[in-house]
Amino acid sequence: MARRPIPAPRPLLHPLRTADSARSTVQLLPHHRMRVTIDHQPLAGITPAMLLWWFQHIGDSTTYGGKQIPGYLAWHPLDHIRWELARPASGGGVGEGARFRIVEAFDRRPEFYVDSTETVEKLDGAGIRLVRRLAGIQVFQLEHTWSACGQGTHYVSVLDLGARSPLLSPVNRYLRTRVFPERMARAWVVHNVEEVGVLEHLLPDVLRQRTDVDA
């Protein structure tokens, strides 16, 4: 599949959080596995229900900077390239069992380009979990969990790379050295802190445009 070019950046209408606004760790685990955890600064004015709605409508069009663009492109105006519903859920649309294709480049750098398709194994009021399996064995998982707190919503992101079985250590080594090395994981931390923080500003704007949502 041909690599999509990184498009010109869209206007940056909302401030981007810095990586030090969150608590993050990159853990190198046995058998060449890796876990990245990001505990984000709370999202003021955002509720768990709003986040569930967002991931259910991530591909919808919205007005941003005076233009109609997919919400995914407004979510991170610099790094996001394309989002596709590669396979709908069994009941149609976005839900558990759907497959997301995500194309992005962290910090707009070609060496940090991602074009990946994962299955939504969880999507509810507490979070979303995206998983990739090889021959039925999990080799990648990205889980975002959220819950109400006094400052708005507490949001945590955990990325797990690699299978747990020692027999798959060679696969894990390939993933961690060729597909998603540690330096790319650290670039993803910055990217994820930025995009999660943007939701604090973008999501209320998106919901105000919708006549079919009680925001």
Q: What topology emerges from the helices and strands here?
A:
Layout: E1 23-29, E2 33-39, H1 48-56, E3 61-64, E4 67-70, H2 71-75, E5 80-87, E6 99-105, E7 113-124, E8 127-134, E9 137-149, E10 152-161, H3 169-179, H4 182-208
Protein described:
This protein has an eight-stranded antiparallel beta sheet with strand order 1-2-10-9-8-7-6-5. With 215 residues, the protein is of the alpha+beta class. It has four helices and ten strands; from the N terminus they run ββαββαββββββαα. The protein has helices spanning 48-56, 71-75, 169-179, 182-208, and strands spanning 23-29, 33-39, 61-64, 67-70, 80-87, 99-105, 113-124, 127-134, 137-149, 152-161.
Key traits:
215 residues; two-stranded antiparallel ribbon; globular; 4 helices; eight-stranded antiparallel sheet; alpha+beta
